[in-house]
Amino acid sequence: MKIQIKLTLLLVTLLGACTKKENQNQISVLFTEEASEMALDGRLLLMLSTNNDNEPRFQINARLHTQLIFGVDVEGMNPGEEIVFDDAVLGFPYESLSDIPAGEYYVQALLHTYETFNLATGHTVKLPMDNGEGQQWNRSPGNLYSEPFKINIDENGIRNVRVAMEKVIPPISEPKDTEWIKHVKIKSEKLSEFWGRDMYLGAHILLPKGFEEHQEAHYPLMIFHGHFPDDFGGFRTTPPDPNLEPEYSARFDVEGYNIIQQQEAYDFYKRWNEPDFPRFLIIEIQHPTPYYDDSYAVNSANQGPYGDAITHELIPYIEKEFRGIGEGWSRFLYGGSTGGWEALAVQVKYPEEYNGCFAACPDPIDFRAYCLTNIYEDKNAYYYDSEHKPLEVPAHRDYLGHVQTTAREYNQLELVLGTKSRSGQQWDIWEATYSPQGKDGYPERIWDKTTGEINPKVAEYWKENYDLRYILERDWDKLGEKLKGKIHIYCGDMDNYYLNNAVYLMEDFLENTTDPYYDGEVLYGDRAEHCWNGDPELPNHISRFRYNSMYVPKIMKRISESAPKNADLTSWRYK
User: Fold this and answer.
1) Comparing C-alpha atoms, which of 72, 80, 61 is closest to residue 26?
2) At what angle do helices 456-466 and 468-483 cross, to 10 degrees?
3) Is the dihedral of CA 88, 90, 96, 102 positive or negative?
4) I want to staple 307 with a disulfide (CB 3.0 to 4.6 A). Which of 17, 197, 269, 299 is the partner?
């Protein structure tokens, strides 16, 4: 009887397997000669959406309302060649096409094209080159895509669906110079040597009032770090458009947020022109890499010497062209989130080249609190340590603590968007910046992207090279005097990405163990979410527009206390 039962179960299993194979879902994707006559490398993405509110490519994220995406690598894909997506292809948030519920969907495909780089390290890698958009896969010029169309998925799955990519995303126009805002782009010799091709750095420069009239003036420099800027942001010479249709911001629960944004930009223009406002140069840097929309502004095994290129090539060029003072005491760093980490990291890595950093809501500055993971002690980044109760580690919350996604989910989406740290997303750029280069030329994984198992050897490399709290503590005997009075950190105590946890650890070191005392400040916003930048009076959705002016009083105080004898403190203080 037992043998008969086992044989019956085996037969049922085999029949089920055959049925599943027979009913396997399949969608074929190709591109036409109208889109490209060349064979292409890249990441081929298939997307489905239950609504037609926007194209599926613009509805993919790690949040609750994301739509569906699946991805495969392609090499030498030819026009007319069909690539089949079946149940084995990884997707997000459903892992397989077989998991998709029955219903009507809009389907779209996109090829995120890769370029071949012959690196100075001797490796050859294939990566997406930025094409002026700031490494956004869904709108990068040169990427191929299809128009969405409706399909029906029933209980029998997906059959006879063929998606043809016939369109190419067009180039993006360069911003034009105005009376106030100038744009520069230079070839970086340091980066070009590393990448084996010409590589460029750019910047948008806001000129002070009276720049042309006061040729004798030389100016301090404020460097705003952050994500890729397509132009100088938050500066507008006219009042808000009276015909602008108000738009609601779900993030801040504010009606007419687009009008507020224009009003803040115009208010800054008026402050910039006030008689007593100090005359500065302010720059926003463009330094996208083949891994992300910016380089994190430090030297990196995988991205090359971006720290040196920005500090020793781009900034001196700007100061020469636009009459900057050109000395360390006259340069200041500020920014939020990615820009917050960059501001602090650049100050730490180049302590005498800059005279102060204002780091708001910085990305993890102590890897014992790499969001909610301690990469040195935890074994797994996706699940809490438990023998019987698997509980996922959260990755995003609101100010009341409601969780919207987990670390595993974020990383699964990234793995769908690109293997080998090529997703162009947050966890992958941390890896591309902090990790050693692997034998294949790509970044070594800090953890297995599928299981979350942490690699302690890679974690140790991160610690020695990019854990800012550890580096400060390790090297304070050399850095302390050079950084005294220069470190300012601000973070909401309900940061959406739990970034305040690392700030607490940094504050503990700075306030309680530094000798000489660091003589800066660390401040927290009560129940403030991501992007809180140190203003205790205004709500987050307003203060985030005031970076360019809110740190000026602190900068002026720092200049008065630290400028060397005979420094130029007057030529730029005209009315």
Assistant:
1) 72
2) 10
3) negative
4) 299
Residue at 342: amino acid letter? E
Report residue 279 as tokens: 């005359």
Q: Is the pLDDT of residue 24 over 80?
A: yes
Mean pLDDT, rounded, for 356-383: 98
Range list of β-strands (E), 265-410: 281-286, 299-300, 304-305, 331-336, 357-360, 394-397, 403-406
CA distance from start to end of the chain: 100
Residue 226 CA, distance from chain mean position: 8
Q: Average pLDDT, stretch 274-289?
A: 96
CA distance linking residue 351 with residue 493, whole number of Å? 28
Instruction: Tell me the DSSP string of 415-440.
Output: HHH-STT-S-SHHHHHHHHHSPB-TT
- From residue 215, alpha-carbon distances to 212, 260, 328, 396, 572 in Å are 6, 36, 22, 50, 10
Alpha carbon distance 343, 30 (integer Å): 44
SS3 529: coil
State the Cα–Cα distance between residues 78 and 39, nearest whole angstrom: 4
Closest CA to 39 of 51, 50, 47, 31: 31
How, if at all, do strands 83-86 and 103-118 pair?
unpaired
Domain boundaries of the chain, sorted by first residue? 2-168, 181-365+469-562, 368-464
Rg, the chain, Cα only: 26
Q: What is the DSSP string of 224-285?
A: EE-SPPSS--S--SSPPPTTPPP--BTTTTBTTHHHHHHHHHHHHHHHHTSTTS---EEEEE
* pTM recorded for the entire structure: 0.94
Residue 13 is predicted with a pLDDT of 42
Residue with the bigger pLDDT between 155 and 558: it is: 558
Look at the alpha carbons of 11, 15, 18, 24 in this order and tell me if their dihedral is positive or negative: negative
CA dist., res. 67 & res. 54, Å (int)? 11
Per residue in 500-528, pLDDT (tens digit) is 999 999 999 999 999 999 999 999 999 99
Mean per-residue pLDDT, 473-497? 97
Report the distance separating Cα 300 and Cα 194, nearest Å.
11
What is the phi-psi region of residue 548: left when phi exceeds 0, alpha when psi lies from -120 to 50, beta otherwise? alpha
Q: Is 323 helix (H, G, I), strand (E, B) or coil?
A: coil
Look over the chain and give the mean of its residue pLDDT values, rounded to a whole number.
94
Residue 522, C-beta contacts closer than 8 angstroms, at least 6 positions apart: 488, 489, 490, 503, 506, 507, 510, 511
Closest CA to 350 of 293, 422, 297: 297
Does residue 113 contact residue 144 with C-beta atoms inside 8 Å? yes
Q: What's the confidence (pLDDT) of residue 23?
A: 52
Provide the token pair at 17: 């397997």
Coil vs helix vs strand at 382: coil
Give the model's pLDDT for residue 14: 42
CATH of 181-365+469-562, one of 2.60.40.10, 3.60.20.10, 3.40.50.10490, 3.40.50.1820: 3.40.50.1820
